[in-house]
Amino acid sequence: MLVATLSDGSEPMEANGRRATSTRRACPSCGALIAADNSDRLCHRCRRNARADIYGPPALTEEFWDHPVLASAFAARDMGAVLAAYRHHPQHVSRITQDRMATWLGISQAQLSRYETGENPIDRIERLRHFARALSIPGDRLWFDRVGIPSQAAPERGAPPDVLVAAWDASSIARSVEETARSDLAISRRAALTGAAAVTMGPTLVEPLQRWLHPLQPLTRWSSSAAISEEELAALQHVADGLRGWGGRGGYGLARKAVLGQLEELAERLTRAPAGPTTERAFFIGAELSKVAASMSWDAGMHDAAQRYYVLGVRMAKAGHNDAFAALCLAAMARQMFDLGRPEDGLDLVQLAQYGTRRKATPTLQALLLTREAWAYAQLGRVKEFHRAVGQAQDSFAQREHGSEPWWLQSFDEAELEGVIGARLRDLAAHDPSQALLAEKHILRALELRDPARVRNRAFDVIGLARTKMAAGDPEAACGLIQQVLPTAVGLASGRVVRKLQDFAKEAERHRELPLVRDTREAIRGVRTA
């Protein structure tokens, strides 16, 4: 007869001292019968061996990650689904509760619940990376960081083309823009957001863009179609001017579709247009529209699409013989890298833009690029280099002449200069707290100078000032500023504004015992939900 054993290895006994068979529960790990006084799923020995797993994720085999439930979550590019699939995986020795996983990830159980249900999409690259590191997810499963990870799958049907590898001639540039815009118009918003963080980084991003420094292949008569007329060009510019005004409103809805639709039509026309001055000017209009599409995509959290259109903006500007505007697109890409926690990549892009315009950059463009350089130094904690770059930016800005700058640099005025310097000083204060007071001074100056019509920029200023006061240890004043800006944030419906508010809420968590802080964080949660 098979004699069962207890969790300590002994045989079970009846009350009269005789050995007895038992129908008690078996340990799912080792198969031993679980002692009657043990209410856990595991026997005492396996529970003791699994104790380390309570304080951190268990060691897992490669087969764990191949399970169909996890495979479908990876295919959907949804970290929330990955977290849920990980918790409910049948190979775990002991149950992974939300409380337990939340402790591993350094978040609250409520946050984890919202991530798993999809209420809060995870679109910040640094958070995606943190979760992947905490759970030891293999690098070849990560869809959001393509550096050094070769794709094993064929390109998805209908997926946008890889704009970084396209040839640098006018016809190829136009065709790439047309195919990308058409593909993105066909992708649903949900599908786009699931791939929102799949940006290219490191040398894979920077090295292909170095081709921008070389002369473009000559514009030849690749088509026998009629040239773009002055009337056609004026109509294109009129439409672009109207669509550009939507770029600062945020969102991903009809406005973005209108920009992409116009960009597709323009690119299709350019694939049939012969070389000529009006064709070059039409390429520049395409660069404008590409940059607007990138800004809208970024605002909606669609970082991969934003990066594509910034790259296309660089290419279209190059074909339009406007290297300065191409540098502006590179500067915008750098800002995106800073937002994603990649200051080294951002610095590489800025320096690429500076080198390419070293002989022709206007004082305002020089100042703008220098503030982007300072941005990288602030995130890296390089205080000396930061102040050197800021001083050079201020000197360059002081040399500008009224009426000599292109219209597309007019938004970089004194208010913007002060606001950027103040916000970057706040970043630097994380490494050197003495910078916080100086940050407040510059942000207040920006608010004093800011045009009231620049509503979103003013919202950024106020949130930046609140975050500065929070860093300086004044949570009441910080929350008062946030309460002032919340109605504006609701009206803007801007993803970037909401993300800045979420950054504030995270920084305010250390003061969560204060009623005003709790109320403000709850109000921010309401804005996000709205």
Automatic annotation (TrEMBL):
What's one Pfam family the UniProt record gives for this protein? HTH_31
Q: Where is the HTH cro/C1-type domain?
A: 96-142
Give the GO molecular function terms: DNA binding
Protein origin, superkingdom: Bacteria
**Residue numbers spanned by region Disordered:** 1-21
The positions making up the signal sequence are none
Q: What is this protein called?
A: Transcriptional regulator, XRE family
Classification from the root reads:
Bacteria, Bacillati, Actinomycetota, Actinomycetes, Pseudonocardiales
